[in-house]
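We both want to read discrete structure tokens more fluently, so let's practise on a single case. Would you supply a protein for us yourself, any chain you care to pick? Would you write everything just below, so we can both look at the same thing?
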Amino acid sequence: MKFLVCIIGGLVLISTEAWPQSFVGKLTVGAPRHQYHFATSSGKALDHLVKLDQIVSKGEPLLRYQEVGSTKEGVRLILAGSQGVVTELNSSTWVAKGELLAKLLTPKLLGIFEPEHGAAVTARALWFCHAGSEFEVRVSYESRGKVFVTLHMNEYVIEVSELFKNEKNATLYTSPAQCRKQRDVSLGAGK
């Protein structure tokens, strides 16, 4: 059993098992944001440095192309402006000025979680279980029974945004271990 120790003029032990391990409620999320990269000049594509459906970090190179016909002929390196999943990648060997080179999908979803029975969520981070994995849910703030959250979904961002674009029941856990424990119980029940 785990205890929280509070010292205020004396010693008090409070069992952490009395705290909720999960919150059940309605979850609604918005559509994920896209990041677009366009050619600033015409040129020849040299290297595609990433693949479709690959997760990239902020500043990671996506592709290089050789500028042609501009006053500054040189090699242009296209970098990801933020973390994202590559959803489109120009595969042509020649690019025209203004042409789409790459499109990324941000792996974060903004949403609203409404816990049942008006339960107060005091945690700054919760966990969402999906596809056998646990994903962090950051709590931005709480107001009038609604908790405003950011879900960090990686490659599952499209699937989860479609699943929760309309209000739907969900369980958010207070730790990744609780998420795994619930998954293991569910898998054991299926045997």
About this structure: The chain has two domains: 21-31+108-189, 34-105. The domain at 21-31+108-189 is CATH 2.40.10 (Thrombin, subunit H). The first strand starts at residue 3 and ends at 7.
